[in-house]
Input
Amino acid sequence: MKRNRRIKILATLGPASDTEEMIEKLFMAGADAFRINMSHSSHEKLLQLYTAIRNVEAKQNHPIGILIDLQGPKLRIDAFKDDKVELKKGQNFILDNDPTPGDNTRVFLPHPEILGSVEIGHKLLLDDGRIQLEAINVENNVITTKVLNDCTISSRKGVSLPDTLLPVSAMTEKDQADLEYAITLDIDYIALSFVQRGKDVEEVQAIAGDKAKVVAKIEKPAAVAALDEIIEASDLIMVARGDLGVELPIQQLPGIQKLITRASRTAGVPVIVATQMLESMIESPMPTRAEVSDVATAVYEGADAVMLSAESAAGDYPVQAVQMMSNIAEEAESDPFYSDIIYAHHTEAESTSADAISAAVYAVAETLNLSAIACYTSSGATAARVSRERPQNQIITLTPQSSTARNLSLTWGIYCVITHNAEREDEMIEYACKTAYEHELVQFGDHIVITAGIPFGRPGTTNMLRIAAIGKNGKCAD
Output
């Protein structure tokens, strides 16, 4: 399944797309991997979706990634006596540890970690930022706030704390159970919500081990402040613009997105841009002009993947949304200015032999205008290093491991093929030429550059570069 674009598409599954038939349609329209949101999925539903995706994968003979998005902590106020109350700008409003139903002066906040962490001057945002409070006094598990806008507040609305670092784990008991079940199914990616620091990611890494890649969702100001340590601890990064746009001044969001994308690219960690990318397509067969520009911006920034949420999960036009996102990406990547923009942020190779070889592969392929770069890899590290260079040439990755192929489904520019184990260098070269030819990535007379780690099967040993010519029927002519 050859795509005419380098950026990948992650599509969320839901009521509008939870059948095997619809999953196959989304894949054919352009989805490279699928997201299952555990906020809305039981273990039984997860198994059903997992089985359907793997059936489509087998039918299409192409690796498909599966991402499980853990729910994370849900911070909410409790109930009001009359379900909802009116608050006026400038009045005082109290959040406390009294379980009595609330009124227009106070409400129960069943989260002692918040009551013990908020400080004077901290903002508290309720109902996705529609209700804005500022702490003016904190003592004895009582937070007295000033209301900053006229509003209606109702029972059990969510609480966001942009200024407060909470002493809580990013994983709840539900997340732990969901994670442990997911890795028994050979899931490819685990996305972690509510990340505040690097150790939150390390907690999941300790459980997932080498069974799944961990995606850190950057959705809190604390995560932006600790971005470098979170990137270092993560396998992938997600710019989760929904909560991030609530907890930060929304006008800062474009700059923060660029900051996260560039920091991730510099570190060689794949980055996904998510949330409201084609939001209007939940109800409309066509996106807005602003949404088209938003998707294109992520493409020009060199993001590894873009994500659809409700558009593919619950919208009226899930297939059209995937197709539209793919069309926008293809058009942006064919722009004559695309290369200049994306390569303006070209990263320097690290001082390791593997990174030096990858940089050399990029230079050779560009200088000689070769048709493709072939990476033979067991762990995926070789292909990921080449992808980091953002070459203009097609990257074809050959791996004997189906898990490796799936783990590269959200990495920029990589076309994965599961192949046989190679025992000798000449055998590997022959595989590379033949596979590139059979998948119509090259033709007779073309030249490709091949990179791998020798001895084969040992991660982190990228140390070989070879140029080969494509002969008749895809045989190596050199």
About this structure: Residues 43-60 form the longest helix (18 residues). The mean pLDDT is 94. The first strand starts at residue 8 and ends at 12.
